[in-house]
Write a structure and sequence with these properties.
This protein is mainly α. The chain has a domain of about 60 residues. The chain is elongated. The N and C termini lie far apart (about 45 Å).
Length: about 110
């Protein structure tokens, strides 16, 4: 697609994408400078949370733990969106975030405190 369409193609996902790429040698050999983000900085998590009106330190801490346990910033966005469902028309709070983490089965090893 990149050659015919004259545009670059980006694959983005959680760390399970690495396994998929490894199973496709024709894709792997055509990749140029793969960038793998294994650990998300807390300031990035805070920026996403704050852009959605979540500024409480304990919420950001919980989201940060989730981001580094599994799929990075994608999981942070998923948790916040899911928490919105629990909150309904109200504001998302820590209880909603914790319920979303549990419901999405994203509780980090060692739990959340």
């Amino acid at each position: 697609m990149a050659e015919e369409g004259s545009f670059l193609l980006v694959y983005s996902g959680d760390l399970s994408l690495l396994k998929s790429v490894d199973q496709l040698p024709q894709l792997k050999r055509r990749m140029v400078r793969p960038v793998i983000v294994r650990k998300v900085p807390k300031v990035d998590v805070a920026a996403i949370a704050e852009s959605r009106g979540l500024v409480e330190a304990s919420i950001i801490d919980a989201l940060f733990k989730v981001s580094n346990a599994y799929g990075g910033l994608g999981d942070v966005v998923s948790v916040i969106s899911h928490a919105g469902l629990f909150a309904g028309k109200g504001a998302v709070g820590k209880a909603h975030i914790l319920a979303a983490i549990q419901d999405l089965k994203l509780t980090p090893k060692g739990g959340l405190k």
